[in-house]
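Why does residue order matter? Because the sequence determines the fold. Keep that principle in mind as you read this record.
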Amino acid sequence: MKKVSIITVNFNHSHVTDELLDSIRSRNTYKNIEIIVVDNGSKDNPVPIWESKYPEVHFIRSEANLGFAGGNNLGLNSATGDYLFFVNNDTEFTEGLIDKLVDTLVQHPEVGVVSPKLLYFDQPEMLQYAGYTPMNYFTARNACIGQFETDKGQYDQLVGPTGFAHGAAMMVTREAIQKSGPMAENFFLYYEELDWADRIRRNGFDIWVNMKATIYHKESISVGKKSALKEYYMNRNRILFIRRNAPFLKAVCFYFYFLLIVTPRNLLTYIREKNYNFIKQLFNAIWWNLTNGINSKQLGFKP
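Structure:
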């Protein structure tokens, strides 16, 4: 039986992580697992309380916030599993989740990453994710299949290739990580799983979705639905993703598209919604890409 390392990252929401761990305890049916929780520099250290409450879990405390990729990579360094199941701490398990994902990877060794169906926790009849369409590198846009649709089982037979895995829940083979490397930590937030999927695919692996497996997701607890932090990293990393992954001519087209269409449109939206601080973050995001290399570790966010 393949060993699965479940890896999640906590940042200032220990009660949410408790709910995830409780769901694993009560609903997981796969026997050969280890659970690794990384506390990513939370203001109050929750690890001592966790260690007494969840003795079966391995906890790692980082004194600094390493971002989504950095926190997950810290957990990865301690993982011993054949498969690594990266899940957001704001998710909750369902029965048979790991079993079904493991079966996919065992039966299809060409697959490097597989994600389950994602449903919104607060509206469990509503789909969040049934796969992604391929990326349009001219615009750095793609679509999330099924999002906001009522789940009537219309995608349940979908077990196969997809454009990208979903960062909230993705099981990755150790072989794919050994050949492709871990997630790029300079993204910090957003787009890192898309960048990783492109790299894993270039190294000869497929990206799949298995809609027979289900997980619930409580979206945007850590960052909030709209914030200066989110605006900065969404814009900065959209450009960075293209710089790292798009063919040259498509990248050039994207730069014109972003500067001539996306930037004016975003500025008008910020002004209309009176989010004036977002204007600074947009220009900071562009400036970072003009002054930093694609592997730069400078984050550049200024509140």
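The radius of gyration is 19 Å.
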